[in-house]
Amino acid sequence: MSRKYMRFSMVTLLFGCFVVGMMSCLRLRNSDQKVIKQFKENGLVPKIHCTEGSKMRYVQYGEGDVLIVFIHGAPGSSDNYYDYLMDSALYHRAVMITPDRLGYGYSEFGHAEVSIKKQAQSIAELIKVASDTIRHVVLVGHSFGGPIAARVCMDYTELVDGLVMLAPALDPDEERLFWFAYLGKYPPTRWLTPAPFRVAADEKFGHVAELQKMEPYWHKISIPVIHVHGDKDSIVPYKNLAFTNEVISHTNLQVITITEANHFIPWTNREEVTKIIVDFIEKIQNSSENIEND
Fold first, then answer.
1. Checking DSSP bridges between strand 253-258 and strand 95-99, what pairing results, if any?
2. For residue 2, pLDDT beyond 60
């Protein structure tokens, strides 16, 4: 065996190990045991469930008569919102749920569901299971999770009482496709791409068509809505705020600009976002009490 061949074989083996290692590290999911450990380090014990219909795993914590459902973007997983579930400003006020969306984490991992309507259906199934003792349901969706949350409000108007969208990708005319999406979409790079990023690429390539399918139904949203966006968002353009103003101006709509903020406001501006959610919950509760007293 020649030295040249041995060198080539070694390089190939090392590259293969690197790829396998990267794919393992970038699976973007935590086992039940890791989730429990993370919460216990903060003196908390979460509940972990899996819905029957869509086989969606979700993590739950908190108490109260309000249910908050956090919906992550693409890629992502339930752990995107663990810090919110472990925040006493929220968990004393509401039951909180953060699911692995279909295709991510432990919810049909690696199998893309590009239909926003079907993603919304899976969230609605989760709400129906979790809301037996709940009076108010609030959805919080970030990025790709924003239109999914909005679609739930369109298709299941009786389920949701409030909608918070954080840097949501809503306007089909402002949809951006970045070069790295192609790595997860087409061979030969697709097989080298970790599963969550392949799923995200499939969702991304179908996103414009899915947003266009939603256009006839924006009028069905009649609940209070908050749209929060950073004015330095280079991933989902700030112009999406204008789209929201156009399609749901008929609702009780509040738009909030976070100055100098990028696309990742759930984490870079967590305290501000938490306050927005807390104030929103109190507003919905007070409104309901006023109606009951009339």
1. unpaired
2. no
Give the chain's largest Cα–Cα span.
89
Q: Do you know the residue count of the chain?
A: 294
Query: Count of H helices and E strands in the chain?
Result: 12, 8
Q: Check if the beta carbon of residue 228 is closer than 8 Å to that of residue 273.
A: yes
Percent of the chain with pLDDT over 70: 87
| Cα(190)–Cα(192) distance, integer angstroms | 5
93's tokens: 């006020």
pTM of the model: 0.89
What is the rounded CA–CA span in Å between residue 205 and residue 184? Answer: 10
Question: What is the tens place of the pLDDT at every residue in 73-125?
Answer: 999 999 999 999 999 999 999 999 999 999 999 999 999 999 999 999 999 99
Domains of the chain: 27-293 (3.40.50.1820)
The rounded distance, in Å, linking the Cα atoms of 202 and 283 is 38
DSSP 277: H
Decide if 184 contacts 176 (C-beta within 8 A). no
**Cis upstream peptide for 188 (omega within 30°):** yes
d(CA 235, CA 178): 9
CA dihedral 264, 267, 272, 278 (to 10 degrees): 110
Give Cα 277 distance to the centre of its chain. Answer: 15
